[in-house]
Design goal:
The protein is mainly alpha-helical and 305 residues long. 70% of the residues lie in helices and 0% in strands. The protein is globular.
């Protein structure tokens, strides 16, 4: 009869530590989920009654019952569009260059350190930078374009860092096989590096845009309005070339600023409006995340290692 193998005390202790860490991780995830659910419940209990089509399609008003968030959510959507168009291509290109093309010297190391430091700079500093550069030096005004570029600068370090980490995760044998077949460096990057790292890059874009949509301090610094009762000009026109960029120069407000304006008033009706606007803001953020996750999933599904 075979004797059972004895388990050493050291191995048993390590298994207990692993099990304890696993339980601790589960509790941490549950704590975060419960905090999010509590926040959603609090917002829903205060603002769900104000959610309606009229609330989404009405301008702000001094009367709480007729106030809406049309100009705020349109401004948030337009600014996120400008932010994504500015930050994503530039951030991905910078990450690819630093990881695949840049020589390993003191200048590259200095750039990498500065990018890592910029990721932790308070957002108000970006607002002051944008005020001096975009508003006073480049004369872009207190516009949608200025706001989008400001938030693009804010999330650019995050996009660069996550792009580099996604590229580093690609096995080296993929590059070696491509070079062995005669591919140029650009062909390796275009046909192998970027497709395989698209999932990780999309994760960084999602994180960056989710942070940007809730920012208030840099937008207040560059002159965002707290009350606005008009929309930017439409991007399409009836005359050639049928596209208009006049909306980029329009004044703006965003949902976080509108919420701050309402929550600072003493009337409880405006507090309910702020809670309803918070629900809309979270829905917009979750929608962006869902879109990014869908794109990332499709890329990963198409790629076979």
């Amino acid at each position: 009869m075979a004797r059972p193998l004895a388990v050493s005390p050291g191995l048993l202790r390590r298994k207990m530590i692993d099990r304890g860490f696993e339980i601790l991780g589960i509790l941490a995830c549950l704590l975060g989920a419960l905090a999010l659910l509590a926040l959603l419940w609090d917002l829903a209990s205060d603002g769900a009654g104000r959610l309606s089509w009229e609330f989404l399609t009405s301008f702000p008003s001094r009367r709480a019952g007729s106030a809406g968030i049309l100009s705020a959510w349109v401004g948030s959507a337009l600014i996120m569009l400008v932010t994504a168009l500015a930050a994503v291509p530039l951030g991905v290109a910078a990450g690819v260059y630093l990881e695949e093309y840049a020589p390993k010297n003191w200048l590259t190391a200095l750039i990498e350190i500065n990018i890592a430091n910029l990721a932790g700079v308070p957002s108000i500093v970006y607002g002051l930078l944008a005020l001096g550069l975009f508003v006073y030096q480049l004369h872009l005004g207190q516009s949608v374009l200025t706001a989008g570029l400001t938030l693009a600068l804010l999330i650019l370090p995050v996009v660069i860092i996550t792009t580099r980490e996604a590229i580093r995760a690609i096995p080296g044998h993929i590059r070696e096989a491509a070079y062995a077949l005669g591919a140029t460096q650009w062909q390796v990057v275009k046909d192998h590096i970027l497709p395989y790292s698209a999932g990780g890059i999309m994760t960084g874009v999602i994180i960056g845009l989710s942070r940007a949509i809730g920012e208030t301090a840099p937008l207040i610094t560059i002159g965002a309005l707290t009350f606005i009762a008009f929309l930017p000009p439409p991007p399409f026109s009836a005359e050639l070339p049928f596209l208009s960029l006049a909306w980029l120069k329009s004044s703006f407000t965003v949902l976080p600023i509108q919420m701050f304006n309402w929550i600072s008033r003493p009337q409880p009706e405006f507090h309910h409006n702020a809670a309803a606007a918070g629900l809309v803001l979270m829905a917009m953020a979750l929608s962006m995340n869902a879109l990014g996750i869908t794109v990332r999933y499709r890329y990963r599904k198409r790629i076979k290692w």
